[in-house]
Amino acid sequence: MKDRIIVNKYPDQQYSTLFNQMSGMFLRIEDDGIPEPFWCSYGPELMDISITNWCDLGCDFCYKMSNNSGTHMSIENYEMLLEQAGEMKVSQIALGGGNPNQHPDFCEILRLTREKYNIVPSYTTNGRGVTNEILKSTKMYCGAVAVSAYEPYEEMIETISTLVKHKIKTNLHFLLTNKSVDVAISWLESLPEFLYFVNAIIFLNYKPAGRLQSEDLLANKHPDIERFFSLVNQQNKLKIGFDSCSISGIARSLDVNPAFVESCEAARFSMYISEDMMMYPCSFAIEKFEGINLLENKIQESWQYGTSFQEIRKKMGQNPCPLCNVKEMCSGGCPIYPEINFCMGLQ
User: Fold this and answer.
1) Which site in 50, 237, 255, 312 is 20 to 30 Å from 127, CA atoms measured?
2) By the 8 A CB rule, do 50 and 280 touch?
3) What would the pLDDT profile of 217-261 be if each residue is shown by its tens digit?
């Protein structure tokens, strides 16, 4: 492996980043007296790349509507993305799908990312198709693996056990919906044994995209949502994280240091590329924006001047909640799906 501590400097914006490839610690460090940058004008720090839309589960919560007819990104196209990512000083790539580890060239994708371009890959899996070869490559090249939580949970628990036995840093991704929040509450009230073995449980706020419908929306409509956040505050035996889509709930309801919280980073520090080489501000923007074809356009130029990227930055910069007492932390919540915000009816 190459350097473990990666420092990138952005003199035009007067800040630097520090990334520990072993621990996953990532910091933005502003020059003295300079505020935190609103976005990285040079390019994304993190790229979210769907390398396949193939999956044989057909989960009702899949925002990509993946199935066993899904297509794979070619390894040639993936390496083209890696070349541009390296030029832009990208630190991390999150591989998604579909079920990414069932891409036919998955081990080579991991190797190229880390060994040739010195970018740390991670991925989310449903647990199917995790072979011994994939486990070996994962341990050698990846920062972490996230296992998706889905009923009836036995397959999920088996996957967690396998990864942990191979000493692979393992997180659990739990999608919060109107139907699943009761399960989350029950787990927080009495931790199941398998949660003691994961690095952290990451709660993901539902977005009305793909197979899920608007009636599955959690936000502030569920009678027990405040109970959920209260239990998160009380929990001291389990590492808990959230996606940035939950920022309004975090800002309103959790006892956290704002220095460790980030509002939506779409089009500011992160972006998404689909398996068909289309670029978006985030993976949930597919139904809202026209993608940018990366077979015809460069990533950096699209990042800087793409219409959808400029539109997201404009929305984030205008903060629609000027009277809110947590507006500095929340920045208005999700700029794409405002209906997912946990505002509790307060302004």
Assistant:
1) 237
2) no
3) 776 567 888 899 999 999 999 999 999 999 999 998 999 888 888
Average model confidence (pLDDT) across the chain: 92
Q: Which residues pair with 204 in a beta bridge?
A: 175
Can you tell me the distance from the alpha carbon of 326 to that of 249, in angstroms, rounded to the nearest whole number?
Answer: 10
pTM for the structure as a whole: 0.94
- Please give the Cα distance from 96 to 52 (Å, whole number): 7
In this prediction, residues 206-214 reach a mean pLDDT of 74
Question: 190: helix, coil or strand?
Answer: coil
Domain range 5-340, its CATH number among 3.40.1390.30, 3.40.50.1820, 3.20.20.70, 3.30.1780.10? 3.20.20.70
C-alpha to C-alpha distance for 32 and 116, rounded to whole angstroms: 35
Bridge partners of 120?
A: 92
> Which sign, positive or negative, has the C-alpha torsion 73, 272, 195, 200?
positive
Q: How many CB atoms lie within 10 A of CB 277?
A: 20
167: helix, strand or coil: coil
pLDDT per residue as tens digits for the range 275-325: 999 999 999 988 899 999 999 999 999 999 999 999 999 998 887 787 888
Q: Which residue do the tokens 């790539």 mark?
A: 93
